[in-house]
Amino acid sequence: MNPVYLDYAATTPVDERVLKTMLPYFSAQFGNPSSVYSYGRMARAAVAKARGQVAALLHAEPAEIFFTSGGSESDNWVLKGMAFALRRAGKGNHIITSQVEHHAVLNTCAWLEQQGFAVTYLPVDELGRVKPETVEKALREDTILVSIMTANNEVGTIEPIAEIGALLQARQIFFHTDAVQAAGHIPLSVAELHVDALSLSGHKLYGPKGIGALYLRRGFLPDALIHGGGQERELRAGTENTAGIVGFGEAAALAQADLATEWERLSELRDWLAAEIKKIPGCWINGDEEYRLPGNVNFGVAGIAQDTLLIRLDMAGFAVSAGSACSAGSLTPSHVLTAMGQSADKAGSAIRVTLGRYTTEEMLHRFVKALTQAVAAIRQQSA
After folding, report:
1. Which of 63, 94, 249, 308 is most buried (CB neighbours < 10 A)?
2. 326 is catalytic
3. 101 and 149 in contact (C-beta within 8 Å)?
4. Domains within the chain, CATH numbers bracketed
């Protein structure tokens, strides 16, 4: 029986339609978009089309989309670039983020602290939500930048970004959100979210790896992270990854077209799976079960270490994870779950199952059966 992939939050397979769109840009249409002759013009037109497709996914303007190598670069660029630009302009020195951010944000903020910035790491409630009033209380006269993720990559909790954004917009404080897990999976409008910057990544929505984007509201100019030529309106140097950009654009267009139906389908599968998992003695769901990404089910199993269960499930043919793929192999309990108030033992039992475009009901029935058998076998061995 073929293995079942249930780790779509880690990465997604490239959609065949995306791959088909990309292939010509590895061969016949190989031109450099910066070149003035026909090869370059064709590549430049393809990049412009993709920029519009990514912008449409966010209800933004194409001129507000800057292509990067992925979500981590987008996070690094906007946080470092805006922090230094705003401090140099005399706006202040204080940054706010949350304790449950992806490490691309947390480690960047830690580096900024070494450069003399003050950073406040906000707590979350037991569901993993950052309360708007917590953000408001943390604001200072020298606060220049706030970064709160749209949806958590481990437990799937969707944050109240629109409320936080409205609060910050009224105070004219720059607001960034890491939407890598959310883009293409839930409706996003940069205007309705009141964000000034937003990060997203191609490989999380059935596009290729190595390509991402940063939405940047008109009027904001972060310091460049990569210096060189004049690409991306002189803000991000380097010859454009044309094939990757084209694939990203097509993936964004496909996600936008199927957003409503796929959101509903995955939400139904997610809710069924969560209900079945809770029937297994000693199991619980982590995160907010109401405000949650449609494909995310993060759960714990009392008394069973996650690595033991992961090995059993892998042997049974199911690819699931213990949380963020970027922290795989770490012996440290999830920083997200510990921030939510869980003990090290409880957090150490967490398993993340994430569903996607190719997940079927039959796959999940098989998974529940395998999970039930694995939990029983482990408990019998340790009895």
Report:
1. 249
2. yes
3. yes
4. 4-12+259-382 (3.90.1150.10), 16-254 (3.40.640.10)
